[in-house]
Every structure is written in structure tokens, then in C-alpha cells.
């Protein structure tokens, strides 16, 4: 929440809205880039896998090139030297977007990898079918009382040991 407040209040009022739009757009292009890379990887590793739709590969190549251009272009200095958010540097929204994505990756690594190892539990995925036929994957903990209160109880158990 505090990060959202900083992003909204931080830039000057005249450029806050375009800056927020730019911050959303750049990480989306990073995600699009990785999606197209994954598409090519799946085509190479699992060429005969059942797919509901197969993308025409020249279109995917064009999309990959366009996405790569959209990732590089914001770091090139504009001809007039000023971006679309004048008092802010033209490349700032790219760096903020990359920072937000990096924070998300670190958060995922802590939640999915580090915390289970540190507290000795396992995240167990299970598939469930919804009423409309959609299959979703739910992740639950191997600790029966895990959650925020369970984590506090778990931490409190270890911190209550007497040292003699």
C-alpha cells in the first residue's frame, strides 16, 4: 500500500497520470516478451503437445521483434531530450517498472521458496474443477494451522525456548 501512495503522490500532479500509465505499460511489455519466448520454447520442447490454438509462427516472430523494440526504445534519449513526463527523466518509468517486477519476484521467492525451507513446511498444489469445467490449482500448506496466526504461533514456539 505504501508503494502505491508513493507512486501516486511522488510525481508532480501534472504528470502523475501519464507516469502511472507508463509504469504499467513497461512491465506489461516485459511480461509479453517472456510469454512469446515461452511460446517458442514450448514449440521447440513439446512440438506435439495438444493445444487449443496454435499461433502462426511468423506473427509470433513479428510480435517478439516489436516487443523487444518496445523494451529498448524507452531507454533511447528522445530527439528533444525530454520525455512525456517533463520534469522526470524519460527513462524513470522503466526503472520503476523493473523495480516493481523485481520486488514481485523477490516476494514470490520468499513466499514460495525461503519461508517453506525456513519453517519446515511444504506448499502442496491440488487441482479442483469448478462448476463450469474450469480447472484451477489451489495451493495449501502442509502445516494444518498455517496462516498468519499459525506463523506467529510457530515463531513464538521457537522464541520461547529457555537458554541455560
User: Taking Cα atoms only, what radius of gyration do you get, to the nearest Å?
Assistant: 22 Å
Question: What is the terminal-to-terminal distance?
Answer: 43 Å
Strand order of the largest sheet: 1-2
Q: What is the arithmetic mean of pLDDT?
A: 85
Report the order of strands and helices. HHHHEEH
**What is the 3D shape?**
flat
Main sheet characteristics: 2 strands, antiparallel
Secondary structure: number of strands: 2
Layout of SSEs?
Elements lengths: L1 H8 L6 H30 L11 H16 L19 H28 L3 E7 L5 E7 L6 H12 L5
Antiparallel strand pairs: 1-2
Helix pairs in contact: 2-3, 2-4
Question: Can you describe what's shown?
Answer:
- This protein is mainly alpha-helical and 164 residues long.
- Helix content is 57%, strand content 9%.
- The protein has five helices and two strands; from the N terminus they run ααααββα.
- It has helices at 2-9, 16-45, 57-72, 92-119, 148-159; strands at residues 123-129, 135-141.
- Strands 1-2 form a two-stranded antiparallel sheet.
- The model has no long low-confidence stretch (mean pLDDT 85).
